[in-house]
What we know:
The chain is α/β, with parallel strands linked by helices. The chain has helices at 3-19, 57-69, 84-97, 109-117, 134-140, and strands spanning 33-39, 77-80, 101-103, 124-129, 149-151, 155-157, 165-171, 178-185. It has a single domain, classed as Phosphoglycerate mutase-like (Rossmann fold, 3-Layer(aba) Sandwich).
Amino acid sequence: MKPLLRWLLIPLIGFAIANAAPLASSPESLRPTTVFVLRHAEADDSDPTNRNPGLSEAGVRRSQALARLLPASGITHTFCSEYRRTHDTLMPLAEKIEQELVEISARTPKAQIKALRALPPGSVAVVAGHSNTAPGLVEALGVEVSGVERHPQHGPMLGHDEYDRLFVVTISPSADVASALVELRYGN
């Protein structure tokens, strides 16, 4: 190669390499976020005046079933509402995987969506909500839930006795919307 041509090409090649866009994103940034969304387990309704009950015996059994089901899922984040029944539903799981529960008010669904969308790629979160928040959260992530009641004020709602539905939402990092929904049943 002629010295003059080499003198011109070397800086151009260096500039092109330094300013080239990467051919592909890093493998870590391509990993989807997975979100498990569920309604709290059965609440203790023995005292109808108690606005913040814990779990009934059936609810405790269901929370223990969840703690047996999800530990191998690689959970990185756990979210509950301010109500004791959501906390109690996730506590056996959180203790087993050594995760702290993050509380976000059931009255601020936008804050919950914001927290989930802010998770790093590859995160796996579990969210315990309520009959009137869990299906709405799934739909806010970008997929429609079938088999729910449509309430004019609260939107999609689970039936009064539906405690076993577990929604698994996969969020594509490139689209920032859910790309898949799988529904499971757990507990008795």
